[in-house]
Amino acid sequence: MNRSELILKLATECGLSNDDAALCVDIFVDEMKKALLEGNRIEIRGFGSFKMKEYKGYTGRNPKTGEKVEVRPKRMPFFKAGKELKDHVNDAS
Known about the structure:
Elements: H1 3-14, H2 18-37, E1 42-44, E2 48-55, E3 58-61, E4 68-71, E5 74-81, H3 83-92
Antiparallel strand pairs: 1-2, 2-5, 3-4
Helix pairs in contact: 1-2
């Protein structure tokens, strides 16, 4: 499911206009981004949680040339599926 499909589903299920559904999705995603940037953990019960993971810099290698490359430290969002989501996915198959 992509963003457009989610907006259409939200509009259909909730009786919203496509513009209102798009606004809801945008607000939801923007608030999640803001929370992660502030270092907060996001938990959606029954679905999962999001948090930022910090990775240290290191010296890597370019696989084509073998040349050494410095990889800068970085922060990456990390998602951990909740128990209910895992159970639902495994029971559906």
